[in-house]
Design goal:
The complex is a heterodimer. Chain A is of the alpha/beta class. Chain A has 8 helices and 10 strands. Chain B is of the alpha+beta class. Classes of the chains: A alpha/beta, B alpha+beta.
């Protein structure tokens, strides 16, 4: 159990049921998982297998029906929405399938956002450096609507790494992109992860993307299986 | 703190992104409407209460219908106060055959005690005025008196029996006030010249003033000594009570304007509500991302509140600047009624504009904003998750409560505020029901006709709530404009037409008892038809039954005014032909009883019933009589009529002047000069001229109101834009799909023209119906006229609405039609 104390994300007997039209529907059941600092964990599964639900629970975006999630050793069920948000602030990064950039802000302003929330004084410089790192230095003043899907996802990755998070949750980061662009995104994601030592929890149905992680898990019937 | 700073930084991004443009426009419009009215009212109010010098030509004054008593003046001098006297009365002056009604003010030595009297030597060079005082043996006139008599300085005029040279042109007179109640031009003369004119008799309608100035403490001691011993009818005037009639007119006027501005605020509020909801809805994803990035719900609220407060600040600034421009026009239209010169605008109304913006913002934005802060962060993973739905009733309740608070504030009175709220809610409710009914009527026709037609009708029926808001918005604006332009002109014309061609057009007042028989003979000789030369006695009502009359005990301002003023009483043996007894009986010609007959309106206002004993104070004597009958008087016959008429046995011995009215054909104007020569103390009032001035004043007032109501149309346009904006995504997608299916731009425009044209048609029709109903109500209750509706009103309103709203709507959606469909579909 010594490993547990070092885990930055830990799920213990985690369960989630929702109310469906035909009664209760179990999505996750008694699921255990440890994510160590610097780990790269991929969770693969079919559409509707509960991957995104699991990601939401691990990141404290949603509440479990049973069991517990520990984020940085803090049990999340004991925390309210605001306390969970405070726990995430600056320590957790996100990359989503649909990018979730704020449409009214330029690329650099989107990257600055988490830094500004943390009160960083050099937000603009750090954001500019990150945009350069993802190859978008020349696009920094473009609005999301003026960027291609791949470019938007690169901005989202820059935003996710802006605060130097301890763990990054990625939900189908290449799901909306073509194969070549998706590969380039995966390169940037893993490159940055390795440079910063950030742990990665990635859910995807794309086997190639999943295979680039050291630990590969499969979510089926609400349980996780270790893949070879 | 970070959230606050981030919110501040976000403001610039909002501005660039154009997300808040419409909300800003709606808020700025509300602020502008309130600022316009308040800047104007504030200027007039400061002109009225600014300084005693400008209003009284003194620090205080005593006003009475009789000369001030000598001991009042002696006591003032003993207290170290300076005094001066003035005497004002209407009269007619002559120059050759030209006659002119003037308002004479005779001033004694020392006038003015405060402020300055300025005059110029030449009506054409009024700027070259000098400050000076009046001397005996000359008269000064206002510039328009010179114009109306067609004379230049130096001309000699007849003032009663005295001939005086018109020396100078009055350019500034400290206690003149505005010209709201002064139809006749001013003539200034010296008090010493009044007795030789023979114009002022014992019962003449004159107003004496004893002006006082000096050390405030001494003045306060003097006031404390004098006010308790003032005879009834005498009034102590100081800066707070300098122009009660103008204050009352201002209060009524600004309440009306405030109500017009409140209508704009309500409409702007509807637009703000639509714009705010859309803004907040579009921020749900941003809120979820921010929550994901670790922002607390408090921080989220703070970011949005900071942004919206900055928006309110900007709206206040823009609205105030607009209001500042608009109030100048209001001041130019009606400002002179209240004061010769309005002071420049002050900064006070900025606060009113700010409060208005904040109230509109609070009522419209807070409910969706409080919902937004509860956006679940998991929305970033599952887009179907949103903030919990808010209660519509809570939102409506908050809006109505805020509106109630706003109206109470604007009306300055809780009861008026509640009544105004009920009025606004009822008007909107009636309009809403009417519009909803009309939208239902569209159902059967939406299945027929050209596809573009069906498309347009379906669009109205598909978003009934949005259509309702837009229609009510436009409906209120169009209704106000129709009422103020078409219905008002119709009513005035109907009223004018109702007067017989030979209705009396001249009044003669101040006829002395020694003159009335000779004057009646002159009128008869010249073939003038008149309704008799009637006695007029001034008296104050002191008791009704056993209870003393206390003006303060009446609720209505009219009753208070009537109870505190002197009445004009008359006596007669026969009932006047335009009077009708509605209760009791008219006395027999030889009646020796002490009896009164009272007009029904005033009986109701003052609570006088048949059989009541009335006590009047007439020239220091108590006159008691019983109310034997109640009369209905046809006031617009333009005959001289009286609220209270007594038996000759009761009143014939009292000091009286006489009054009559007659119709003077235009070819007999010489009679006026003859009258003025033979009966110099008689004052001729040209009713036609006065009516013309009243009409001109009503037209200006209507113009001023139209001006404020024009804001409602702008509000209607903003409501339309907000409604278009609210359905923008759906509409853009529909247009894109239609275009991919091969619809031409012409087809799309036709459908949109039908949609907005129908909304305008509904709004215009409902507005015209509303204006008709209001016209009927006013006609029946105020003018007492049979109602003849204008057959063009409904077609006019409907076409005005259809064309105006149709054009505005097409302009608003033009850009959506021009976007290539692929852009819209890819974004979806």
């Amino acid at each position: 159990m010594s490993g547990h104390s070092r885990a930055i994300v830990r799920a213990a007997k985690l369960g989630k049921t929702v109310q469906g039209p035909e009664g209760e529907l179990r999505i996750l059941g008694d699921l255990d998982l440890d994510v160590m600092p610097g780990d790269a964990v991929s969770i693969r599964g079919m559409s509707g297998s509960g991957k995104s639900t699991l990601l939401g629970l691990l990141a404290g975006l949603d509440k479990a029906t049973s069991g517990e999630v520990y984020l940085f050793d803090q049990p999340l069920t004991a925390l309210d929405e605001d306390a969970r948000a405070a726990l995430r602030a600056g320590q957790v990064g996100f990359v989503f399938q649909s990018f979730h950039l704020l449409g009214g802000m330029t690329a650099i302003e989107n990257v600055m956002l988490p830094l500004e929330l943390g009160g960083a004084r050099d937000a603009r410089d750090r954001a500019a450096a990150l945009l350069e790192r993802v190859g978008l230095a020349s696009r920094r003043h473009h609005y999301p609507a003026q960027l291609s899907g791949g470019e938007q996802q690169r901005v989202a990755i820059a935003r996710a790494f802006a605060t130097g998070p301890r763990v990054l949750f990625a939900d189908e980061p290449t799901g909306n992109l073509d194969l070549a662009t998706g590969r380039r995104i995966a390169d940037i994601l893993h490159g940055l992860r390795e440079e910063t030592g950030t742990a990665l929890v990635l859910v995807t149905h794309d086997q190639q993307l999943a295979d680039r992680c050291e630990r590969r898990l499969l979510l089926a019937d609400g349980r996780l299986e270790q893949l070879a | 703190m970070n959230a606050f700073r981030l919110g501040l930084r976000w403001i610039l991004r909002d501005w660039r992104g154009g997300e808040l443009g419409l909300l800003l426009a709606a808020l700025a419009l509300a602020a502008a409407a309130v600022a316009t009215v308040d800047f104007f009212a504030d200027r007039v109010e400061r002109a009225l209460t600014g300084s005693a010098a400008d209003l009284l030509a003194a620090d205080a004054a005593v006003e009475w219908s009789e000369p001030p008593r000598a001991d009042w003046e002696e006591a003032a001098h003993a207290a170290g106060l300076r005094t001066a006297r003035t005497l004002s009365f209407p009269s007619v002056v002559l120059h050759g055959d030209a006659t002119q009604l003037v308002q004479i003010k005779a001033v004694g030595d020392g006038y003015p005690l405060r402020g300055r009297l300025r005059s110029a030597a030449d009506p054409a060079a009024l700027d070259a005025g000098e400050t000076g005082t009046m001397a005996a043996g000359e008269a000064w006139g206002e510039a328009r008196l010179y114009a109306q008599l067609g004379v230049s300085p130096g001309a000699v005029i007849d003032v009663g029996e005295l001939r005086l040279p018109l020396r100078r042109v009055v350019t500034e007179e400290p206690d003149r006030g505005g010209d709201l109640l002064q139809f006749a031009p001013r003539l200034l003369m010296h008090l010493d010249d009044v007795p030789p004119t023979g114009l002022v008799g014992p019962a003449s309608r004159v107003s004496h003033r004893l002006l006082l100035a000096g050390d405030p403490a001494a003045l306060a001691r003097y006031a404390a000594w004098l006010t308790p011993i003032l005879p009834k009818g005498a009034e102590w005037l100081d800066v707070n009570r300098a122009r009660p009639e103008l204050n009352a007119a201002l209060e009524r006027g600004t309440r009306f304007l405030a109500l017009a501005a409140a209508t704009v605020v309500v409409l702007a509020g509807a637009a703000a509500m639509l714009a705010a909801r859309r803004f907040v809805d579009r921020q749900t994803d941003a809120a979820a991302v921010l929550r994901c990035l670790g922002l607390s719900s408090r921080g989220l609220l703070l970011i949005f509140l900071t942004r919206l407060l900055a928006l309110a600040g900007a709206a206040t600034l823009v609205g105030s600047l607009l209001g500042l421009g608009a109030q100048a026009a209001l001041g130019a239209l009606v400002g002179r009624w209240f004061a010769a010169d309005l002071p420049p605008p002050s900064l006070g109304p900025l606060l009113d504009a700010a409060v208005t913006t904040l109230l509109v913002l609070a009522a419209t934005v807070l409910p969706p904003l409080f919902r937004l802060r509860r956006t679940p962060p998991a929305r970033v993973l599952r887009h179907d998750l949103g903030p919990p739905p808010g209660s519509e009733w809570l939102a409506i309740g908050l809006a109505v409560a805020t509106l109630g608070a706003f109206l109470t504030w604007r009306m300055g009175d809780l009861q008026l505020g509640i009544r105004a709220l009920a009025g606004v809610v009822a008007t909107i409710g009636v309009l809403a029901v009417a519009v909803r009914g009309l939208i239902r009527l569209l159902d059967p026709i939406r299945l027929h006709g050209h596809t573009a037609w069906r498309q347009g009708i379906a669009a109205v029926a598909r978003h009934p709530t949005l259509a309702l808001v837009q229609t009510v918005g436009f409906g209120l604006g169009i209704m106000a404009l129709l009422l103020l332009s078409v219905v008002r002109t119709d009513l005035m014309a109907a009223w004018r037409d109702k007067l017989p061609a030979d209705a009396p057009n001249h009044f003669l007042i101040n006829i002395q008892p020694t003159e009335h028989e000779a004057l009646e003979a002159l009128l008869n000789d010249r073939g003038m038809r008149h309704a008799g030369v009637l006695p007029m006695i001034r008296g104050r009502l002191t008791d009704i039954g056993d209870r003393p009359v206390d003006p303060g005990s009446y609720a209505s301002a009219r009753a208070q005014r009537l109870a505190s003023r002197e009445f004009n009483l008359s006596f007669a043996t026969a009932l006047q032909p335009d009077n009708r007894i509605v209760a009791g009986r008219w006395w027999p010609p030889d009646s020796q009883s002490a009896a009164f007959s009272v007009e029904t309106g005033i009986a109701e206002t003052l609570g006088i019933a048949l059989g009541d004993k009335l006590t009047f104070q007439v020239s220091g004597q108590r006159i008691e009589g019983t109310v034997e009958s109640l009369r209905q008087v046809q006031w617009d016959s333009f005959n001289a009529n009286f609220f209270v008429v007594g038996t000759p046995a009761l009143l014939a011995g009292q000091p009286a002047t006489y009054i009559t009215s007659f119709h003077l054909p235009p070819d007999q104007l010489r009679l006026l000069a003859d009258l003025a020569r033979r009966f110099p103390s008689v004052t001729v009032i040209d009713v036609g001229g006065v009516l013309g001035q009243v009409r001109a004043m009503i037209e200006r007032a209507a113009l001023a109101l139209e001006y404020v109501f024009a804001f409602t149309l702008v509000a209607g346009v903003i409501v339309l834009l907000a409604a278009v904006q609210a359905s923008r995504e759906v509409r853009a997608r529909e247009i894109a799909v239609l275009r991919t299916l091969g619809a031409s731009r012409r087809y799309l425009y036709a459908g949109l023209a039908v949609e907005f044209g129908v909304i305008g048609l509904l709004a215009g029709t409902v507005a015209a119906a509303g204006a008709l109903a209001t016209g009927w109500l006013v006609s029946e209750t105020v003018f007492n006229l049979p109602w003849s509706p204008n057959p063009w009103l409904i077609p006019l309103g409907a076409s005005l609405g259809a064309l105006g709203v149709g054009a505005a709507g097409l302009l608003a959606v033009r850009r959506l039609v021009d976007v290539p469909p692929v852009v819209v579909l890819r974004a979806a």
